[in-house]
Amino acid sequence: MSSESSDGALTEWTWAVATDPSEAHALLCASDGHQAARYGMVAPVRNLDTTERRVRAGSVHLLRHGTGAAASFTLSQEPPHGLDLSVYPPATRPVYLQRLAVAPAYEGSIVGVRCLRRAVELAQEQGADVLRCEANPDLLATRRMLDTLGFTQHGPTLAEGGVRRVHLQKPVTG
Q1: Alpha-carbon torsion 135, 72, 116, 91, what sign?
Q2: Given Cys at both, which of 36, 63, 74, 154 links 41, Cβ 3.0 to 4.6 Å?
Q3: Residue 69 in contact with residue 24, Cβ under 8 Å?
Q4: Residue 163's beta-bridge partner residues?
Q5: What is the separation, in whole angstroms, between the first and last Cα of the chain?
Q6: pTM for this one?
Q7: How far is Cα 68 from Cα 62, in angstroms, rounded to an integer?
C-alpha cells in the first residue's frame, strides 16, 4: 500500500520486525507521552533494557511509512510479567499483545487498527486460539478500537498505583 506525500511522491507502507531497539523505544515513549498529555495522565516509565530484549527476540513489529516508524506492537507467546492469567477463560494457545504504540503524527488515522489486524494475522499464523492484552480503559480511543475489533473484557477494572487496566481477549481461530 502506498500514499502520496506532500511533494506528490508515493510513500510505501511496510511491515518489518524491529532491529533497532532505540528506534522502537523512542516510538513507544513518544506514543506514551502523547497519550498521557491527551488524557491528562502520567506517562509510564519504559525500560530500554526491556525493549532491547523484545527486539532481540523478534517480538516487536513495526509499521513503516517510508523509512519512518509509524506504529508498533509487541507479540509474544509468553505472558507479560505480572499478568493475572486467572481472569481469562481457558485457552489452548494464547498469544499476548503488548506495547501498542502509534506515532503522534498518525493519531486519528487507521494506523492503530492496522496494527491490531496485523497482530491477529500473526497470532493466527502462530496457531493461537486467542489474542490477549491489557489496556488502560481511560485511553478512550484505544479502548473503543479494541472493542470494535472484537476484544472483550474479562475480569474487573483494576487500579494499582494510580494506573487503571483491564484484561481483554479476542478469539483468533478461523
Answers
A1: negative
A2: 36
A3: yes
A4: 160
A5: 25
A6: 0.90
A7: 9
